[in-house]
Request: fold
Amino acid sequence: MLVSGALARDVSIPLWIAVAGGLLALWAALDHLLVPSVRWFLRRRVDRLLEGIRTRLKIDLPPFKTTRRAVLIDRLLFDPEVQQSAAESAREQGLPRDVVLARVRRYAKEIVPNFNAYAYFRLGYSAARSVARKLYRVRLGYADEAGLARVHASDTVVFLINHRSNMDYVLVAYLVAERAAISYAVGEWARVWPLQTLVRAMGAYFVRRDSRDPLYRKVLERYVAMATAAGVAQAVFPEGGLSRDGKLRAPKLGILDYMIRSFDLEGERDIVFVPVGVNYDRVFEDRSLLLDLSPEARRLGAPGSFATTARFAAHNLWLMARNRWHRFGYACVAFGTPVSAREYARARGLDFRRLSKDDRRQKVEAFGRDLMGEVARVIPVVPVALVATAFVADPRRAWSELELKAEALRRMRELDARGAHVYIPRGDQDYAIDVGLRMLTLRRLVEESEGLFRPVPAELPLLSYYANSIAHFFGSEAAGS
Reply:
């Protein structure tokens, strides 16, 4: 009886322990019963999507692209060159090897993407298409289809793009989605939650652009080299950042050097660089970018930048609500003639792997300048840039509409003679000039009085910013110089 009474005695426990225990039991049941089924279902959806991509879009994702992120991180960690660099770093800094390797792993986790085909082709493509077409009249200004058709399916394709706006990422990803799933190098600005998760899922990798840590640079170098050797299509902005004054910047060659320093001329894959030119009738960041050129300009900081962005968005939403909102003009992209790294090197008797560090730097700089020249040649001439060049060339002059159109037509002919790709909406030159002039007057960069058009003096830097996007076609007549 005593034993029986002891066994029958009630045992009380706190409610939170009971709830926690119940949740853990539920999680265990889900993990063993439902989660495998959900994973199988999602895996089946992804496999079906990849098969559709291969058959409908003729895109065959390289195995490297779909390899689990943890595997790629381990490959980087145990890469012989990374291991050697870690050993050297440990000796120089007097640190235990395990401490340095932990830093390597942290760098690898920071850099390596987490590509998700479903996120890229279903969510990312749809979002990029919707955003680009909602904000701009998106146009393909030119494409060397014959040259692009000669690119072999096994080659590694690298799209080299001039950097006008953060919209470039969205615009180019949308336009090349039916050719390749591209991987971007993204700066540290995007390393905020939840944006970084989305960026990694889209196949982008993060870069500390100003890092001087040789160990970090080695980990980044080896990741870029692995991805390039594995055939991953990539998009690179050679300028390394947004143009502040509208002109093309000198190329930064770090990523290019990482790609070709271990390039095997006799290997199975060539590296093919496709020059891509991007131009806009309006760049969202234009005024912010110009502030960076003025040392006395007041810096807004993060809160100020957020407030400015919020005001811009609120203003445009208010215009939409009143049915007075218009898209921001034309966004135009052009694809030039692909440049084969193999053909380039053979024509010059080069093998980048066998060059000394100084020689390789010189040859890579020359290659970078040549590639940047190809990018410059395919930057489209859009209406706003065309009309802006006339106002900037003679800022004190007042133009009648007829005089302005005659000047713009003269510049069109000159640009055409120099091989520029002038985008003419609807194939109507008169309409193209009207579009450019209307955009400038709506933004109050140009004012009209008694039938004459003049640039607003305070807005000349902004007019020059747009004219500078095509200044390289005019040589010494660089706009705003």
